[in-house]
Amino acid sequence: MNIKVIGITALLLAIPFYTQASAISELETEYKSQGAEAFSAAAGEALWTKTFIDAKSGDKRSCPICHTADLAKEGKHASTGKVIKPMAPSVNPQRLTEVKKIKKWFVRNCKWTLGRECTAQEKGDVLAFLKTL
Ligand code: HEC
Question: Which of 23, 30, 79, 125 could cysteine-pair with 44, CB 3.0–4.6 Å?
Fold first, then answer.
């Protein structure tokens, strides 16, 4: 391999990690400006695995219902059956790279799962947990 190829390869490998780090740090700054304290991966994992009861239907809801318990594996949408790509950024480098996408899905998924929007603290904690995977 010549030096140019090595350089380009290194650059391509670095892109997903760079953009993931920058998307998360942008959101962390935003959440802190909304009053969140230091983020906790343990608290994020606890929220991720917690079961909530839907007020209307009485159904059990949680994040792993769609994203599965093993975040390195593909998930399946609880209502549509559509395949959801693995959540762990280590297996799926596209994960958590786009601020707009993360925000959109936090709104939808928190409303569906918790019956309300997640707080800035909760969202930062979940990202702290997911980024370690
Ligand atoms: C009803 C099914 C469902 C549930 C329950 C669910 N999600 Fe999701 N989630 C999705 C789908 C569908 C996507 C978008 C497709 C994709 O990113 O693969 C998504 C994407 C996301 C994303 C965006 C990831 C990225 O790479 O930008 C985040 C963050 C997320 N979900 C967090 C959560 C959290 C936190 C919970 C629990 C509070 C949760 N989800 C529960 C279906 C669900």
Answer: 125
